[in-house]
Structures are given as C-alpha cells and as structure tokens.
Amino acid sequence: MTDTLHIIGAGLAGSEAAWQAAQAGVPVVLHEMRPKVGTFAHRTGDCAEMVCSNSFRSDDDERNAVGLLHWEMRAAGGLIMQMADRHALPAGGALAVDREAFSAAVTEALRAHPLISFAPGEICELPGEGRWIIATGPLTSGALATSIRAATGAESLAFFDAIAPIVHAETINMDIAWRQSRYDKGETEEDQKAYINCPMDRAQYEAFIDALLSAEKTEFHEGETAGYFDGCLPIEVMAERGRETLRHGPMKPVGLTNLHDPATKSYAVVQLRRDNALGTLYNIVGFQTKMKYGAQTAVFRMIPGLENASFARLGGIHRNTFLNAPTLLDEQMRLRSRPNLRFAGQVTGVEGYVESAAMGLLAGRMAAAEMKGQTLPPPGFETAMGALVNHITGGAEAKSFQPMNVNFGLFPPLEEARGGRKGRKDRYKGYTDRAKEVFSAWLAAQA
C-alpha cells in the first residue's frame, strides 16, 4: 500500500478521520485553511475547534442515544472522546469540555502522530485524483462549495446555525443566581452544582419576551432563506412561535429550586454552563441568537443575575451547508459519481459535534480499509453510528432531507418492547444493550 489519504478540514470529523486512518497504518495529509483563511465562527487555527457550544450533550450510554454514540466512539478508540474525557468539566449528566484545552490537545495528538502530516492552505476545488475525505463542515468555503455543487449537480441546501453568547463568570450576580444542575443530576457535588441558574418571575419573563421580539436582528443576504435546524433555533425565533415556547425549552424551570428563596417557584430559569476549566467563562445554555450585538447586550442584561454581565463573546449566526446525502452518497460515504471522494461530518447532513465526529470515525476507517484492498461494511443499523450512516445514505427521504441528530427513532424497533411513555426507560435500555452487542461484534471483526 503506497497511497496517501488526504483529508480536507481539521474540524471534529476531519480530525477523527485522520486519527482512525493513521491508527490503521495509512499515511494521512490533513489540509486545513485556518488560520490563513478564517470563518465567521472560528477563532483559531487549532483542530477540532468547538464554536457553538462546549457540550457533547448527554453521557448516559444506557438510556440516551447521544450517550450511546459516546460509548461507541470510546470503544473504537476515538480521539475526540479521549480528549473530551481528559478535559471534561462538571456538567451534571452531560459531557462538557474546556474547549480551548480540548482543541489544543487534539491538535497536539495529531501533530505528534508519525503518519499524519499537515498541509496548510485552502483547497478550492474537488480533487480529480487520489483518495480524499471532504470534512469541511457547515462553514465550507465558498470556492469549494461551488466546486461541490458543480460536481453533484445539486442545488445548495442550507440552514442557519446560531451561536450562544459567553459571559465572564465574575460578572454574574450570585446574590440572585445559584448553582444547581437540573434535578441535582450528577455523581459528585461538583456535577450537581455544574450550572448557574438565573430565575425570572412572570413579569420579568414577559418583559424579556417583549424585548426579544422587538430587538434588532441580523438581516439575511438576498436569496437566503431562514431554514433553521430545530435543534439550534435562535431564541427569538422560538419566542415568535409562542410566548410560552421558551418556558418549555431552554428556560424551563422544572427540577430547579432557588437556593435564595426555596419557597418561591421560578416562572422561568436561564441556565449557564461552565465553558472552561478555570470556571471563568460560562455560556448561556440554548441561547443561540441572531440579534445584533448592541441588542444582545441590552436584552441579556435584563436577565436577573446578568444585569452587570460582561460578555467574552456575543452570539452570532452563520450559514450551514450540507449535501442531499441520500441521493449523492453510497453506504461507504463515497460520492456516487466520483468514488475516490468520501464525505464526513456535518456536511453529510448529520447535526451535532458527536454525530459529526462519529461520521469522521467511520469515513477514516472505511477509507483505510479500502486502501488496503478491503471493504469495511458500516456497523449494523442497531448501533448509533449505523443508524446515522443509514439515515444519510438512504434511510431518509431525499425530497425532505434535513440534518438530524442521533435519536432512537432512527433505530430498528425492538421486538416485544413495551410502548408508551411508561415503557420508555426499559425500551431505551434495550436499544443500548442491543447496540453495544452489535457494535462490539463489528469491532471484533476488524481485529
């Protein structure tokens, strides 16, 4: 084997793909345009930079599909999970990381690998020869996106991702706010107090909604439409759907007791999650926004406890481009019209950090196997990875294809599983038990 695998994009998917292929003995060249060519959301040239949030979401591998995906990636020796675990922060039942330390550690591991080399600079066209994985993510450069559209013959598909603001912890008024994870979730006291909570009574909530609705928003460019992904809706868009929407979403007060006034039930609660290991930065959970910067400062300081908040970063909005993967990719994640090209990560139509990295893991392993003259089938649909790759390569309806987080609705039904809400916990445990068995067998077959 003398071929080299080239990977475009050193985000979560590209980094994981490079690691998996190199661990399989395949030489890898990782092409990354940052920091020479920047994006709206990125701040550094490091690999696997996390821009929207510092959370990999639930780490429950027994009753949560995202937690199951964590388990599968750990079982497969995934670099992203290794470094996430190493730089984890208290976050209740979630896996959150110190994003700068995490990204630096991924970069260091990739640069230290003897089979991985870096080629800085922008790739503007799809390569005609060689083995390539395109893992350029939601912020694929304009030139490369144009080349992809020309090669696929498909019109651009896009939605908009919004970025949540980050607050300096020292400017949060802890005489009003308190520390508590929802339902006191977590094994340690640190986990059980991983979030900072800002309470609102009804009058404060109504005033906040009024301010959201009237705030000046970012305008779209001509020809753009606001096709948001429901898992990352700007808060003002949620408010437009109904005044109570936020109370049943990111501002729900359930499972929280105000330590300053235990007898009074909050009408709504804004949660902040630690964003770095020092605990000096906190992001406002679920508060992605497209408000203009001046409006953000004014509106967010209406939140009790944040009246004097200083912001390390305000929210923003960016275009997120993805393929109509069910029509374009085969089950090996190759472009049907040009099978020397694989795609991985969010550009394939998965949504979320973990899902993107998982598709990078599969693409890297599949490419390495192919370069050794073998064919690696995807994991069974009973697994989290298998369910995702099935969704993007044929399981979804092409005409209405939209980005998707991993969820148990993508899994084959369990035989004789109890239906309804009462049977949900046992049913979810059944899904994860079955998935772990199938995924372990898939890994064993590669040994």
List the SSEs and their pairings.
Elements: E1 5-8, H1 12-23, E2 28-32, E3 55-58, H2 65-75, H3 79-86, E4 88-89, E5 94-97, H4 99-112, E6 116-120, E7 131-134, H5 142-152, E8 157-163, E9 166-168, E10 178-179, H6 189-192, E11 195-200, H7 202-214, H8 235-240, E12 268-274, E13 281-284, H9 293-300, E14 311-313, E15 316-322, H10 325-328, E16 334-335, E17 338-343, H11 353-371, H12 384-395, H13 424-444
Parallel strand pairs: 1-2, 1-7, 2-6, 7-17
Antiparallel strand pairs: 3-5, 4-5, 8-15, 9-13, 9-14, 10-11, 11-12, 12-13, 16-17
Commentary on this structure:
By secondary structure, the protein is of the alpha+beta class. The chain folds into 2 domains: 5-154 and 323-444, FAD/NAD(P)-binding domain (3-Layer(bba) Sandwich), CATH 3.50.50; 162-319, Elongation Factor Tu (Ef-tu), domain 3, CATH 2.40.30. The chain contains 13 helices and 17 strands. The protein has helices at residues 12-23, 65-75, 79-86, 99-112, 142-152, 189-192, 202-214, 235-240, 293-300, 325-328, 353-371, 384-395, 424-444, and strands at 5-8, 28-32, 55-58, 88-89, 94-97, 116-120, 131-134, 157-163, 166-168, 178-179, 195-200, 268-274, 281-284, 311-313, 316-322, 334-335, 338-343. The strands form 4 sheets. The protein has a 6-stranded mixed beta sheet with strand order 6-2-1-7-17-16, with helices on one face. Helix 3 crosses helix 4 (99-112). The protein is globular.
